[in-house]
Specification:
The chain is of the alpha/beta class. It contains nine helices and twelve strands. The protein starts with a strand and ends with a helix.
Length: 276
């Protein structure tokens, strides 16, 4: 008998994957955590039924959310990740030798535990000596961390449940204050195909606080529509430019210098979403 899992991405569209089996299913105080093994994407982490990451294509998301801001900043030393309990963004951050401290702020410890157990190739950076893990509310942590970070990466789930507050103008104002004078932030901001109003609203909220706000794109097969947006806010440095004096030769599978530049070249329908 064949078993298939469907993620309902909109009221009218779903993504269906043939599965080999369920490796984990549990409910934490915050959400349902499931890890399934699929034929197409390998092991897949689901939170409340929504795909968060897969071992087959996670490298696209994690490389793009991490290396774009880190290479746009000339000297990123202290970095925070809000959410991202699977550890993939941390894994990419610690590839940068300028980084002295990477702080993972995750509200749900059981997501970290599940990722350590079932997604070791993604969570493998969590034990690095430069990594600090805080099990706490990311909104409150940022509010209390004024002038602390060079880069803040908001690696959140979709804007439902515990992540709702991570997409508000008030939160982005706190992020601005938590960054140093030349700081940069980036947030994953959903699919411009399926969530255009969310993309527009998030860009506007970030732009309210940051003098430089841009959107860039990446292609992630397991995410809704495959086309995914990231909104970046910067106090000083143009995020579309690699501002590192000596950009590192990073071991990556998707990101490179050409992709960094090209990711900010927006299709016209996306450009219109973020043009006043």
């Amino acid at each position: 008998m064949e078993l298939w899992y469907t993620e309902k991405q909109t009221e009218n569209v779903g993504m269906t994957c043939k599965t080999k089996g369920t490796l984990l299913r549990k409910r934490s105080p915050y959400q349902e955590i499931v890890v399934i093994d699929t034929e197409q994407f390998g092991r897949m982490l689901l939170l409340d039924g929504i795909v968060q990451t897969t071992v087959a294509d996670e490298f696209v998301y994690h490389e793009m959310i991490a290396h774009v801001p880190l290479n746009a900043h000339p000297n990123p030393r202290k970095v925070a990740v809000i959410g991202g309990g699977d550890g993939g963004t941390i894994r990419e951050i610690i590839k940068h030798d300028t980084v002295e401290k990477a702080v993972l702020v995750e509200i749900d410890a059981e997501v970290i535990e599940a990722s350590r157990q079932h997604l070791p190739e993604i969570s493998c950076g969590l034990d690095d000596e430069r990594v600090e893990i805080l099990i706490t509310d990311g909104i409150e942590h940022i509010r209390q961390s004024k002038n602390t970070y060079d880069v803040i990466i908001i690696d959140s789930t979709d804007p439902v449940g515990p992540a709702v507050g991570l997409f508000t103008s008030e939160f982005y104002g706190s992020v601005y204050e938590a960054l140093k004078d030349d700081g940069i932030m980036v947030a994953q901001t959903e699919s411009p195909y399926y969530e255009p109003e969310h993309v527009r609203r998030t860009f506007s909220n970030v732009n309210t606080h940051f003098p430089i706000t841009k959107l860039y794109l990446a292609y992630i097969p397991s995410y809704s529509s495959g086309l995914w947006g990231f909104t970046v806010g910067a106090k000083k440095h143009d995020p579309a430019v690699m501002n590192r004096e000596k950009p590192q030769a990073l071991k990556t599978r998707y990101y490179n210098a050409d992709v960094h530049k090209a990711a900010f070249a927006l299709p016209e329908f996306v450009r219109q979403l973020v043009t006043p």
